[in-house]
Amino acid sequence: MKNKGSHHFIIFIVIILFLSGCTTLNSEHKFDKIGMLIESSIHDQTWGSQGYQGLMKIKEEINADVYYREEVRTEQQINQVVAEFDSKGITLIIGHSNNYGKYFDKLKDQYPHIHFLYVNGGYTGENLTSLHFNSLSMGFFAGMVAGKMTNSGNVGVIAAYDWQPEIEGFYEGVYFQNEQANVTIHYVHAWDKTDMALQYYEEMKNSNIDVIYPAGDSYSIPIIELAQMDRIQSIGYVNDQHAIGGNTVLTSTVQHVDKLYTHAITQLIKGEISGGVYTFGFEEDVITMGEFSNNVPNWFINKINKYIDIYEEEGLLPHQLMTTK
Known about the structure:
This protein is an alpha/beta fold.
């Protein structure tokens, strides 16, 4: 009896220690107050509004108090808002742009009790996490659609930066589908240089381009609206833009920022991710293709969807499948 009782006592102690450890883990990773910095406006109908919607989804699903500040761009503004958020007891700050990474990198040691989260950057630390969309894949499938639907054989891309993975993916997708197509790419080197983007659009229109991919935040909507008037087909960017351009929008490359943030924060709370760089895409449902135009043949839509299913299972794009067989 003595040995049996001792055995039970040891098990009881182990259980207590296990539960205590779980409590500590949860308390360390719980975020009751979350703040967001947004470079633009929450009413811009593209990236800024998506960030705000993501914050509202975080509030709903994680049951946290949320705060945000718009038009926060300079280092001085960022420092002021972070200090303000810290005074409110906020322990997770989201920078809704890759530009926040370099500033968060300077602040992370000053605020070790705050976890900094931002998108599309390379700066990391114990309390600094960068989230990435697997944008190359979405660009590839959109490029396939453009390659299929071009009649003139001329496809145009107006990109913000040359480092955007979706641009490389789009280029490869066009040529995978249509080896005879010609892809013209212009870079405006900013997310918000709408005037320059519109100038490039006019040049492309005069060059007989009949499919255009405006891969930038502020100028995607005005270009899609112009393309509709000019009867030029387009590919939407970030949001599903079928409602804006109707059937002239062949499809859209949709980045669900709200799902990205809630997915990542849930993993942070569970302790499954920490500081570092993490990439998510079709498999986590943070990237999808938008509504397809009625002009795109159903058999081709089914083909694209089948390729996406294979990509989610095997991690291989169509041209990579060909090389492995």
